[in-house]
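stage 2 :: seqdesign
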Protein backbone atom coordinates (compact mmCIF):
# COMPACT_ATOMS: atom_id res chain seq x y z
CA UNK A 1 0.00 0.00 0.00
CA UNK A 2 1.29 3.47 -0.87
CA UNK A 3 2.27 5.80 1.92
CA UNK A 4 0.55 9.12 2.49
CA UNK A 5 3.52 11.22 1.27
CA UNK A 6 3.70 9.21 -1.96
CA UNK A 7 -0.05 9.59 -2.49
CA UNK A 8 0.24 13.34 -1.93
CA UNK A 9 3.16 13.50 -4.36
CA UNK A 10 1.20 11.55 -6.97
CA UNK A 11 -1.86 13.76 -6.50
CA UNK A 12 0.26 16.92 -6.86
CA UNK A 13 1.87 15.59 -10.04
CA UNK A 14 -1.56 14.78 -11.50
CA UNK A 15 -2.80 18.27 -10.63
CA UNK A 16 0.27 19.69 -12.36
CA UNK A 17 -0.44 17.63 -15.48
CA UNK A 18 -4.07 18.78 -15.44
CA UNK A 19 -3.03 22.42 -15.22
CA UNK A 20 -0.84 22.03 -18.32
CA UNK A 21 -3.57 20.38 -20.41
CA UNK A 22 -4.54 22.58 -23.39
CA UNK A 23 -8.19 22.72 -22.35
CA UNK A 24 -7.26 23.94 -18.86
CA UNK A 25 -4.89 26.49 -20.38
CA UNK A 26 -7.75 28.00 -22.41
CA UNK A 27 -10.64 27.72 -19.94
CA UNK A 28 -9.92 31.13 -18.44
CA UNK A 29 -10.42 32.74 -21.86
CA UNK A 30 -14.00 31.48 -22.14
CA UNK A 31 -16.78 33.91 -21.37
CA UNK A 32 -18.52 32.98 -18.10
CA UNK A 33 -21.81 32.24 -19.88
CA UNK A 34 -20.12 29.76 -22.25
CA UNK A 35 -18.32 28.01 -19.40
CA UNK A 36 -21.57 27.80 -17.45
CA UNK A 37 -23.32 26.21 -20.45
CA UNK A 38 -20.57 23.60 -20.73
CA UNK A 39 -20.81 22.77 -17.04
CA UNK A 40 -24.60 22.54 -17.17
CA UNK A 41 -24.40 20.17 -20.16
CA UNK A 42 -22.06 17.94 -18.17
CA UNK A 43 -23.95 18.10 -14.88
CA UNK A 44 -25.08 14.46 -15.01
CA UNK A 45 -21.50 13.32 -15.46
CA UNK A 46 -20.48 15.58 -12.60
CA UNK A 47 -23.10 14.03 -10.34
CA UNK A 48 -21.78 10.56 -11.19
CA UNK A 49 -18.26 11.55 -10.24
CA UNK A 50 -19.36 12.14 -6.64
CA UNK A 51 -20.42 8.49 -6.29
CA UNK A 52 -17.15 7.21 -7.75
CA UNK A 53 -15.14 9.58 -5.54
CA UNK A 54 -16.93 8.43 -2.39
CA UNK A 55 -16.44 4.78 -3.36
CA UNK A 56 -12.71 5.32 -3.83
CA UNK A 57 -12.34 7.21 -0.56
CA UNK A 58 -14.18 4.44 1.30
CA UNK A 59 -12.01 1.80 -0.37
CA UNK A 60 -8.84 3.64 0.64
CA UNK A 61 -9.74 3.77 4.32
CA UNK A 62 -11.35 0.33 4.67
CA UNK A 63 -9.20 -2.46 5.99
CA UNK A 64 -8.64 -5.29 3.49
CA UNK A 65 -10.61 -8.49 4.09
CA UNK A 66 -8.35 -11.49 4.65
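stage 2 :: out
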Amino acid sequence: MATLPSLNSLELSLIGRLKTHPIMQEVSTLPWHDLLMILIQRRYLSLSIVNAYEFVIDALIDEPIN
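stage 3 :: structure notes
- The radius of gyration is 16 Å.
- The chain has a mean pLDDT of 77.
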